Amino acid sequence: MDDNVIVTCGKNHLFFWNLEATGTLTKKVAIFEKHDKPKYVLCFAFAFNGDVVTGDSNGNILVWPRGTFKVAQCIANAHDGGIFSLCVLKDGTLLSGGGKDRRIVAWDMAYQRTGLEAELRETVGPVRTLSQGKGSMILVGTTRNCIMQGTLDLNFSPLVQGHTDELWGLAVHPHQLQFVTCGFDSHLYLWDVLSRTAVRCMDVGEQSQCVTYHPNGDLIAIGTTKGKWLLMDMVEQKVIMEENAGSEIISCIEFSPDGRLLAVASHDNAIYVYQGDEASHRYSRLGRCQGHTSFVTHLDWSEDSTFLQSNSGDHELLFWNGAQLRQVPDASSMRDTRWATQHCTLSFRSSGVWPDGADGTDVNTCDAHGDILASGDDFGKVNLFHYPAAQPKSPCYSYPGHSSHVTCVRFLHDGARLISVGGKDTAVMQWSIVS
């Protein structure tokens, strides 16, 4: 290969640049001659003999011999749809990765098929990039936030998996080292804490905003962006109930500690309360709590499963008798109530998480375990406070990591780790709590 040659590709162009001794660049435009000029040249690679090999949006592989800018060989319809990646392995084999067909094809040094190829599952998405891994391993990056590892004669397995759209829902298992996440990509992931891998991925068919575990750990409830909530049996891996709670976004959803009641908070300013039947795992609506003048943002149940506290978009803190569906007007009477969770960012015990100059939307989430309160904010930070954080602008430790707003934080049941999820960065992070 020539050290003074640079190749660039893109929309309607493939250029060969030569770096002259004077330090200037001269450009040669690729000549396709009788071959169809593609709208996009999507990728290229250098073969061991110096050939430039390109993949384009027509699904063709073109070979440009060293020192020339004319096509010497065309492999037409190498893939069904665009070729997004080419990779030359250490033994000279050329790999091509297709987008539409999700296939990885091997070619020998004469650009003939070797007979080895693989097709990725639809759930992991089309090929976006290929790379040589350790030994004979091949690494494949996909359009659905997956990195796959494997060989063409064996199966590919996920090395990294993740969500592909904005991520909001997070819930931890009540007594196992597992948690679930959901988001706008309509997928629910079950994660194992110790291996830090996705155990299961399920398509719930709806963009999801929030999720919660039943105290028994076998059921989860998912709130969607269109007013529907789903009850899923995690043992059977199927949705066993669907119910509408208004027609707007379900912003948060929580089971009572005894599992008998389910509170579903909506952007229509109401909290819908459902009562469950233990035998059938069916929930029927008791009614709704009305009193907020803006959309509900956070919910907590009391330890005795009697009361609710809730926040709203206009920064209210209201209290409710969950079973009677009545607001508790005397807030001071609730000051000594023991809460099963601390998800309300505006409360007697969490008001100190708000920084100086906050506009009321900067802190998106919080959770407590023991004497530690964690929060997530719009600045990509996870913050740790002493709990309760009742004083304004309470001191904290702040930890960067996310490149987008932190949408949810939750402690695992043993309090040894904290899970955080980001919105636009779709990242799931695991933090160890070090005393």
Description:
The protein has 435 residues and is mainly beta. It is built from no helices and 38 strands. The strands form ten sheets. A four-stranded antiparallel sheet has the order 4-5-6-7, with no helix packed on it. The chain is elongated.
Short account of what is shown:
The mean pLDDT is 94.
Overall 3D geometry? elongated
Give Rg in angstroms. Answer: 27 Å
**Averaged pLDDT:** 94
Tally of alpha and pi helices: 0
Helix content: under 10%
Head-to-tail CA distance between termini: 55 Å
Total count of strands: 38
Low-confidence stretches: none
| Structural class computed from helices and strand pairing | mainly beta
Spatially, the strands of the biggest sheet line up as: 4-5-6-7
Main β sheet profile: 4 strands, antiparallel
Beta-strand portion reads over 45%
